[in-house]
Amino acid sequence: MVADTQTAGTDRGHAIALSIGLLAWIGSTANNALKTLQMARMLSTLSNMSDYQLAQIGISRSDIPEYAAKLMADD
Known about the structure:
Layout: H1 5-47, H2 51-56, H3 64-73
Helix pairs in contact: 1-3
């Protein structure tokens, strides 16, 4: 049996490229899920603070979403 090395190399390279693409997609998806979870926890933590505690860090209750987004952007 004769193997065509050019075709085999191309197929292998294509498979490797697909694998790398899949790993990158999984990493990106996991990163997005982690950021969503972190944002939810931050919003929950800030929302559970008293108005006095929020005032001590310089925000009001209505500022919580914007403040959390700013903190996440600084990551």
